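The freezer alarm interrupted the setup, so I double-checked each line after restarting. Inputs confirmed:
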Amino acid sequence: MQPFYHIFKKDLSSELRTRYAVNSLVMFILITISVILFSIGTETISDYLAGGLFWVVVFFSAMSGLSRTFVSEEERGTAMTLKLIASPASVFGGKLFFNIVLVFSMNVFVLVLYSILFDAFVLKNLVLFLTAFLLGNIGIAAASTIIAAIISKAGSKGTLYPVLSFPILLPLILILIELTKLSMDGVGLDEAFVEIAVLFCYDVIMFSVSFLLFDFIWKD
Amino acid sequence: MNNFSVAAESVTKFFGRRLIFKNINLAYENSGIYGIAGPNGSGKSTLVKILSGLIAPSKGRVIHSVDGKNIEPEKLHNYTGFVSPYLVLYDEFSAEENILFFSKIRGINLDKGKSNFFLNELGLYERKDDMLKTYSSGMKQRMKFIFALVHSPFFVILDEPTSNLDNEGKDKVYRLIENYSGSNIVLIASNEENDLRLCKNVVELTNYK
Amino acid sequence: MLWKIALFILICFISIAGIAFPIVENPSAWYEFPLITGLGENAKIIFFHVPTAWITVLAFFMSTIYGIKYLRKKDLDDDAKAYTAAQLGMIFCILATVTGAVWSKFAWGSFWSWDPRQTSIFALMLIYGALFVLRSAIEQDEKRAVLSSVYSIIAFVTVPFFIFIMPRIMKGLHPGSADDNTAGPVVNFKMDSNMYLIFVLSLIGFTILYFWMWRVGYRLQILKDKLEKQFS
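Predicted 3D structure, all chains:
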């Protein structure tokens, strides 16, 4: 198996052993959804609004969890260790794969909770939504991982992460919200083709650009 | 005998505006123990990081080659081993797990015999399944040698190799170094007399300011 | 020196022409502009809004180009050029957003309505803001230069998504968006040759002004860095 896969396994084993990420992310997701539910109170919200809020929860959960993979290496001093045993491409590949797995895990959890708790969240065309969900999560992981690499090398990492990530993720979030609306309206996959194509392009571009640029970030 | 060589050509390093050293020219080949000396803060750690490919020089270059062919930076990591006070291994895993991960990430099959050999030589075999979090600083230091040697690199860089070691630990390490340098290059950066005594020649870093 | 005076005169002329020339139904004199139904006097904002929006995109483009140059040659002068371009870009971005909001108020009734082009210019402002926050979080100049160059490039690749794709897909109020039947694409909104002339002059004037400010800005930045290095 390739080195990147073993870097992923190392990160995974580390998280499973310490369980820090799993616990705190689960709690974070529960709290974010609770805050939204409390703010809405007994008001009914439109389906579009519920759809939009879904991606709000996804965004903030991503901001809470996806920087750990790089920030923890820098903070503990093991970044140098990784430099000594793997090429930059493997490091980025492993961390990216880890974040993809993490994003999918988190967002499936959010999706399940959301579907249960928000009556207005009804998806007439589930296939369309799931396609958007699949491509969207990959895009979120790609963009978030490269930004995590950037901020891990800067100071005051906490607030810097959402500030830097939001402009980059914004086009993705807008498309995903649009696609969610379309799937709620029961629009077919073929009619939403342009949006899906744009989503796919975003993923491809983010992947390529981040692999190309990672070398510059990683070397000092 | 391997045909590994490393050469530094006019290496200069600045951190921002501060000059660390300039115009260093070095060359090491095949095998032997060599030293770099200098008081604290003279740039020994910086120089060895440059020689191991971790950071780039501000000016000049470092060339690593094996059998006459240059080694690309992306492929260098399996030819070099590195020990340093700044090196940190993964606390949440045991010694065995750390060794296994390093081998797999390097893309090399772990030679269990060699790994056990080093664990025994350095007195860590009984504790190999304990998490590094439970190790003393001396044990962690000795663990770093396994990290640096288990993949049989041709070029080993040891920055302050005996820090945190008691006399017994030092002896173990010296024995290991002397054996290893029979067919590989070992470079020691230190200001300890006993460390530098092992070296064939010693470069004084203060000459390069 | 001569061109600076010429530029000053040009900008003065544009400002006066842009604001003071009247808009009448049937323009007869050389200084009169045609009336476009629905816009009236407010059409004049085009002389200021479009150039500032154009400059902010140009500045961002230049900031990214010099970022790429820095990554290739590691010459800190390129970083100074990129940074100055970003600063100017931010200023023009604020100007474009404000002039856009003013136009929006007169034309459509509210200052802000999340139409795709407005969202795009806002996103650009967020990118600039993020860039400045990133730079302020890093002490060493080389690291700062590398990371801001990388971020500019990543931000730059998201820009096509905003500028070209969003308005096509999403419905909006801007001239040129998906379901806009009234006023047609932004630039050929029935300007006659007089208006068009002033418009082009304004575009050229602002662009020259930008390049002038940019040159002054990055040379100042380079000098500042040199002074700091000497006296540390």
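Quick read of the result. The two ends of chain A are 28 Å apart (CA to CA).
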